[in-house]
Amino acid sequence: MPPRCSKKLKGNILSLYRTARARRIRQKHFCALLQITPRRLQRWNAHKDSLEDGRPGPVPGTAPHRIKAAEKRKIRALIQSEEHADKAHRILSYTAMDKDIVTASPSTFYRIMRKEKLTSHRGVFSPHKGTSAPPEREDLTGPLQRVSWDISYLKTCVKWQYLYLYVMLDEWSRKVLGWTISSRLSREIAGEMIDTVFIEYDISSLPEEKRPVVINDRGSQMKAKSIIQMFKDMKMKQRFSRPHTPNDNPYVEALFRMVKYYPGYPLRFRNEEDARIYFETFFAWYNSEHLHSRIGFVTPSDKHEGRAEKIISERKEKLKNARAVRLEAHRADARILKNPTAHPLQNEKGTLCVA
User: Fold this and answer.
1) Which residues contact 72 (CB under 8 A, 6 or more apart)?
2) pTM score
3) pLDDT in tens, 319-345
4) What are the tens digits of pLDDT across the range 40-87?
5) In the CATH scheme, what architecture does the domain 146-290 have?
6) Is 207 exposed, middle or buried (0-12, 13-18, 19+ CB in 10 A)?
């Protein structure tokens, strides 16, 4: 049953309902058959003398700025393509907009996907349950104000043998600042990775009050004296998450989840070199191509380097212009239908004719 019904449809349903009641068919069985809620039927029956829809705005599907049929076909082709099979409706919307395939809002993509029954989770991961709560943190206004780092296990082809992925992340832009792979859990390897990041981003040249705060958990590598002393020497604050509370370090934990649930993730690595080759490609894609949902569906590199605001404003302008174009096109169609003799049309051969 559509969300908005015409006066004629409501009248027909009420007529059927009266016939059903005369044959002693119960209301709940009648409603189940027509897939309508009993409360809705009761409301129509109570106002049977005035069945017009009094809600403001156009009936769904008749808005003057509604999406065109050709654009719907492009959207269907995009969401059903193998390349975009794992992407959510928001990612698809902004990807299509950035590539000038079609300009439509995420809600428009969602409505079309729901109609095509493609709104199930588009990936190998399960839905987020929404039970975690991030810790209190100061508001960030730019990159390199707060970073977090952690280590994650990677399975190999040999049982009980693992590789370890060390990652440092900027919490404002979500950009991966540095990473390394090792077959050992070691404070020396962690220190080398952190040193590389600090040298690459020239952290030592920043004023002491503008150097980033470092968030990490309570692993032995994080609590090692050499690591703690390194941050003290750099005049940087090091903060530890609570024991057994990964939600206190949510940004890097969310990154690890994405890493291991990415459709192309190999699950197991043969050796350290294979893992390094894979993650070189993955983190290059993540930083430069992945549209991150928590930073406005721009890439972490765009956010980190200050291009995000321009990209987002351009998208808004495209949506505004597309809405105006559709609005004018549908108004023109309405004028032609209202007075066809006053608007000459061209047939397929290009000659003028009168509808």
Assistant:
1) 112
2) 0.74
3) 999 999 999 999 888 888 877 776 555
4) 999 988 988 888 877 777 776 778 888 899 999 999 999 889 888 888
5) 2-Layer Sandwich (3.30)
6) exposed
